[in-house]
Design goal:
mainly beta, Methylamine Dehydrogenase, Chain H, Jelly Rolls, 2 domains, 2 helices
């Protein structure tokens, strides 16, 4: 006789499943309960939460499991902490999520030495991937974990290795190994960074012997599909726009692209946890960046990417997302006590959304603002970074400068997406002046960039509505 499944699907409201709400203790201490990790594993969905800062800042979080019949329980091995790392170690067939190592029979082992570390990333080891993984902590601790014996070794204090600030300032968020390098990101950013008084975010890579700092702006997510496409993607921002940097193995180069900001609600290191880049459908990437969803190909032909397309805007803080049972699953960070700042918060709680990937197109229409320059020193004839132009409706460019005399701003477009730009039009702004251009309705290209005629401090911002 055929087996009859008796699964009862959970009730949802606009995709949100109330029975899967993640609720932390009222306290003390009372903090938040964000969904740091969502990971399908052997027929179950593992949900790992985080409080704001180690176990002392909140209780009632930890590991939960949703089984094949859509029943959720808190796992007996759950520990309070701040965790946002997930990784499948293929050689040993084990899931690593937070400080837990889980085999195919759902037996959970917990690495005691890592319980009090704010784990934000796990990635493949460069020299011994059969036995070891890298474990990154938010305070810059980089460990080596033997997934078989659970032996832990501290490799680096990245606050010293990369000259980033120490506890209370640096905010490492993710790591990824690919193309022969380990890449780490730190999204440290607040008002002094906006004002140009400092720049303490970090994008850095390690080749097994030497660390190299690639960028001193805040970066928050890094991922790729390893040797499948030989590319690495990482997202960040500065005051001018959101940023997408891409590494292509074919020429060993990092390239910078710029994207609109859908909201300024992500312009602080605490407010960006955790926008991800994930593979949730077959052989393609989904990217959550500064309040906007994108679809993206992992491939770079001719060392260029062009298939970055905006899907929708949102206000949810998406801690993680994945595919499970044919559904797209998104975990959030909703109501938080904010360490006492939010006196209207009765209890920390967060939701889980389930639906189809295509449902994302039903959210807010793609729109945003940003550009390559914001009071930026520029050189005559030096093109700006490419800025995304496709997928938006009405488009307007604002240009100003602080130079003496007229300054021309040449607008160039790449309508093929292959890195070849063509002149479109030129704006002229008088001494210390301003000029504006509204693109015709329906006009679009993959990328747009601007080229100044003279050295000056310039601003070029595009508004997409």
């Amino acid at each position: 006789m055929p087996t009859v499944m008796s699964t009862t699907h959970p009730q949802s409201i606009s995709g949100v499943v109330p029975s899967f709400a993640q609720v932390a203790d009222f306290g003390p201490p009372r903090s938040e309960i964000g969904v740091g990790c969502l990971m399908p594993w052997q027929g179950r969905l593992y949900v790992l939460n985080y409080c704001s800062h180690r176990r002392q800042s909140g209780t009632g979080v930890g590991l939960r499991v949703i089984d094949g019949d859509f029943q959720m329980t808190r796992h007996p091995a759950a520990v309070d902490g701040t965790y946002a790392n997930r990784f499948v170690h293929t050689a040993s067939s084990q899931l690593i999520i937070g400080p837990h190592v889980i085999d195919t029979q759902h037996r959970v082992r917990t690495v005691k030495e890592l319980v009090d570390v704010r784990l934000c990333g796990t990635s493949e080891h460069l020299t011994d991937p059969e036995n070891l993984v890298y474990m990154l902590g938010m305070e810059g601790e980089l460990f080596e974990l033997d997934v078989r014996t659970l032996k832990v070794r501290l490799l680096f204090d990245l606050t010293k290795e990369l000259s980033t600030p120490g506890e209370g300032a640096c905010h490492f968020k993710d790591c990824y190994t690919g193309c022969g390098r380990l890449v780490v990101v730190n999204n440290d950013y607040y008002e002094p960074d906006f004002l140009g008084l400092r720049s303490e975010g970090t994008l850095a890579e390690y080749d097994g012997s030497t660390w190299k700092v690639l960028d001193r702006r805040p970066f928050v997510a890094v991922n790729g599909l390893s040797s499948f496409a030989n590319t690495i993607f990482t997202t960040g921002w500065d005051r001018a726009s959101a940023i997408l940097k891409v590494f292509t193995k074919a020429d060993g180069e990092w390239r910078t692209y710029r994207l609109p900001k859908a909201s300024h609600c992500w312009d602080h290191k605490w407010q960006t946890e955790w926008p991800r880049i994930r593979s949730i459908e077959h052989e393609r990437l989904m990217m959550d960046c500064h309040g906007m969803w994108y679809e993206m190909s992992p491939w770079a032909y001719g060392n260029r990417i062009w298939g970055v397309r905006p899907i929708s805007t949102h206000l949810w803080v998406h801690g993680d997302f994945c595919t499970w049972k044919g559904l797209m699953v998104i975990g959030s960070d909703n109501a938080s006590h904010e360490m006492g700042a939010n006196v209207q918060c009765a209890e920390p709680q967060s939701g889980i959304w389930m639906g189809r990937t295509d449902d994302l197109w039903k959210l807010g229409k793609p729109k945003g603002w940003g550009g390559p320059w914001w009071d930026t020193p520029v050189e005559a004839g030096e093109p700006s970074d490419p800025y995304l132009m496709t997928g938006f409706d009405q488009k307007c460019l604002h240009f100003s400068h602080q130079g003496s005399g007229n300054v021309e701003c040449r607008i160039e477009v790449d309508f093929q997406g292959d890195g070849h730009f063509h002149p479109y039009t030129t704006l002229t702004a008088p001494s210390g002046g301003y000029a504006q251009h509204t693109f015709p309705s329906g006009f679009s290209a993959h990328w747009v960039r601007v080229v100044p005629s003279a050295a000056c401090r310039a601003t070029a911002q595009l508004h997409y509505t």
